[in-house]
Amino acid sequence: MKVRFAPSPTGWLHVGNARPALANWLEARKRGGTFVLRLDDTDTGRSKPEFAQGIEEDLRWLGLNWDDFFRQSDRLDRYSAAAETLKAKGLLYPCLESEEELNFKREQRRKQGRAPIYDRAALKMTSDQLSRAIANGKTPYWRFKLSGRTIGWQDGVLGDRHVKLPSLSDPVLVRADGSFLYTFTSVVDDLETGITHVIRGEDHVTNTGIQIDILEALSGRPNRIHFAHMPLLTDAEGGPLSKRLGSVSLRQFRRDGIEPEALTGYLVTLGTGKEVVAAPPAALVADWDITRISHSPARFDTRQLLAVNRRHLHGLDFAAVRERLPDGADEAFWLAVRGNLDLLAEARDWFEVARGHITVPEQPEEAPLLRAALDALPPEPWDAGTWPAWTAAVGAATGRKGKALFLPLRRALTGEEHGPDLKTFLPLIGRERVAARLRAGG
Ligand code: GLU
User: Domain count of the chain?
Assistant: First the structure.
């Protein structure tokens, strides 16, 4: 088995392409196959080196590695050779119509109630007409002559699928400037690099019909590649995700501090109805089964992702995060705060509360309570028993209990209304800071 993930470096990777990336990787790892990263970069106008580099970084961040890598821009001679093969078979033909002419023809057909597909007028062009046009400075672009069959396949996710080629325009494979279109280069690569399974988004279903036709024309053999199309992702409301791609890019999630394990665990369960558990790709292999993916679009909900992230953080050991915690943060600190984090970066704020400086909110009305608390403050060493013993003493001295007792103290000690359990957090702040904050707060 050999699969490929083939992004076009025309933008940052987003969850819509991370999902097939992960699926390809899991399929390869599960079945002892080869996972190839291929950059579809023949669109020189839109491809950018920073996106190409970004794709590799983002995939590594996600926890994916690849066994082989290449970019299509390094294989232009192969595409030229394949184009010549098709020309020799009379299946790639030159066209000269401008975009305006094509638009006009489409409009005419629509008015006549016919499908607005290309009428193949260029096929009737004689070689004399073509030579004259070229002599007049025109350069042809090239279309593939579709066979007119209905192409069917057993889709690895969607089941029985077919595409009726007569209802499609012959696709342009080579532009007038000589550059090749993805529809074509992908087929040449899939054939020549021995790809056995193509797993990609449902938006490519029509392409698959066209590409199988091209593939069979090129190779002269029936197609043997298995195709699987993953239903598209929608946003939380069921609308198209495409409008918000910026906000669901891997880069943005990384910047926001989402753990990659939360994202992979969430992506892999989308559309399966299974419970989401954050996990790195390697831990997802055993349970992976592409046939479990539902045929209908799956909702990608950033709030759910955040909930997965939160749950994941709450269960992480100190060893898993120590390098990403502020200097000096120890296991006791981590265990005290992890249950309060949405994002790991927030640990830094709590470390500041524990060991650094905070702005103590003024609570003049609570001055007697804070003074009583100061008076009752026990000497160190402190442990998990200190908070209950101390607050019991303050309660007895002031007659306060419940929220009226705890909230002013929490505010004075942490500057916040909510936060870690003070039983474990109080010893981390230490007596000196606690005393100073009680004095400042009243
Ligand atoms: N470059 C194509 C894309 O990003 C690849 C699709 C495919 O997997 O064939 O949509």
Answer: 2
